[in-house]
Amino acid sequence: MSRMREDVTSSEMRHDWLADRWVIIAPQRTARPCDFDLVFDEPSGVGDCPFCCGHEAETPLAVASYPAISANRKKESCAEWSVRVVPNKFPAVNIPGTRPPMRYATHPASPVPTNGINLFKRRGLSGGHEVIVESPEHLYSISQLDPESTQTVFRAYRDRLRYWLTEREICYAVVFKNVGQDAGASLVHTHSQLIATDILPPDVQRAAERMQLFYEQENECLMCRMISDEVELGVRIVEQTPDFVAFCPFASRLPALITILPRQHQSQFEKLNDQELEQVSWLTHRTIRRLEKLYPAVAYNFVIQTAPSCRKDSASFHWRLELFPRLTKVAGFEWGSDCFINPLAPEDAARALRQAGV
Amino acid sequence: MSRMREDVTSSEMRHDWLADRWVIIAPQRTARPCDFDLVFDEPSGVGDCPFCCGHEAETPLAVASYPAISANRKKESCAEWSVRVVPNKFPAVNIPGTRPPMRYATHPASPVPTNGINLFKRRGLSGGHEVIVESPEHLYSISQLDPESTQTVFRAYRDRLRYWLTEREICYAVVFKNVGQDAGASLVHTHSQLIATDILPPDVQRAAERMQLFYEQENECLMCRMISDEVELGVRIVEQTPDFVAFCPFASRLPALITILPRQHQSQFEKLNDQELEQVSWLTHRTIRRLEKLYPAVAYNFVIQTAPSCRKDSASFHWRLELFPRLTKVAGFEWGSDCFINPLAPEDAARALRQAGV
């Protein structure tokens, strides 16, 4: 197959097989006028930052701590750790043992029909919510870390996912990162989060079901097939290592969205060995640097989706890291239709990312 | 049923029956610290705004124009119109007759398997994309219009929906509004948009299917049941008129999300009569003023979902107007799981909105 340029000069719809969802690729939309300047965040908050070294008492006690590598010691006072994992002080889920009484359970003020469909179904939500503080210094992007420290961060992801996904009550755990105000960050100091829950969120369940369905129909893993097609085609590839590949998916919902995948089938991120961790952390770091080269101080999210622990068909699950730069805003059409309008063709995004030297 | 206060002091999950999706209500999250200030947009762009009166030649020719009401004339030069509908110069869909050749059709550079599942499915997208300019003056919110002008805006929505939904090739049409940069607006001058397509977006199809399913199981319309339950309960009601009701839905994905519904079953917004238009435009205007009283210059979207014209079961569809204030950012967890964390319980939002005098 040739590396032919796939120009898109008019709107087209593309089907995201994994999510079973169509997106609109509309490159002509980029030409429209705008009253607003895209403002990128500058790092702030230094001095009273609870994640900085010396402020350890302002967070709950660490559940894991990774020692500083001596070569990277910059301040004597921060020499003890390079990565710290602490419980989130403001958890999105209820933490068993600490949860306050659920008042709604004793004051069920929403009508519950004695038969038929209940429009007011509610339930508790238990699990864990942790913060992975990625540096003792007040840095604002993981791209500012050196390769060894980045690898330590990924080791923390692996270890905490492994911890939570072997807990009895836990069904699902996800590591995610919010960088910049537009990506939902509230603190600038570089950090990630882990949420573990006793339920499986709808999109994750759907993705797991789709991967299983593909496997049943094609006798092959969906993501393995996708990797082989993308690598052969080349136009959407950003970068490859022997064991990993970064590319802009065919039906990207957002401009410059990037997926990083293990090239060999692997269901569980938490089973990565140290050599694989080194490669995937290196590739992620480079990919974020490419992105920041194109869009300085860009806000972004990334999410590591590993197989849920409560499904029997998890062998068909192929773990992935998804990187969502926040270059456009979700607008009314998207909220109303769940159909995203992406003004940057993934082929053009991938070409620009490849060309961005790092 | 009592108007008992439904306090939520810990996280809980709530099921959105219409979307068949769970959300996390996590009020304790509002206490967390933040390095960022919430910055609201100030109106700008006056002078070179293509939507201002006197600049009509900068937009395509109007497809509809509504005359100014004499009492509201402020400038002699803008006397001819109060609302103008023009084709979008940067359409998200291909406009039949104007579309450039689709190069992807002649350069299919993505691999297409001769049998089995196609991971690179694509198709064209045709329809219409219009802008409803809501005032000849450089206002930035529909709440700055007087009641008569607001009603004219809603008449334009009705007329354009009616036009598109009787076009043969069109399956779906939606009116939506983006106000403020955080809501995806690129121009500040108050305006809405209409997109009509020859396909049904996934969320709209799902909503239509869910409404039909509810009807089949309960022999009653889902939204009619919801209105009757919400009105009886009262805790989530914002305001009512004889024919319409505004409330914060039980399983709101975003803080202070508001739905406005006709109290009597109606599938098609475009069939509203003038008296109904007057009421719904008045209620929407008041609701936005309440929201702006609580959160000055807040960014928001609204979307009018009317029955698609290509489904046979559209009688079970109940049209709705959904108002999405953009007070929080969609972050990594949401992108990865499609499970939203809403830090403001809808009962608390509704109480605050009721108490905001307008």
From TrEMBL, chains A, B:
The keyword RNA-binding does not apply. Residues 126-349 form the DUF4921 domain. The active site is at H191. Gene3D superfamilies: HIT-like (3.30.428.10). One of its GO terms (molecular function) is zinc ion binding. Keywords: Nucleotidyltransferase, Transferase. Its EC number is 2.7.7.12. The keyword Transferase applies. One of its GO terms (biological process) is galactose metabolic process. It holds the Pfam family DUF4921. This is Galactose-1-phosphate uridylyltransferase. It comes from Aureliella helgolandensis. The lineage of its organism: Bacteria, Pseudomonadati, Planctomycetota, Planctomycetia, Pirellulales.
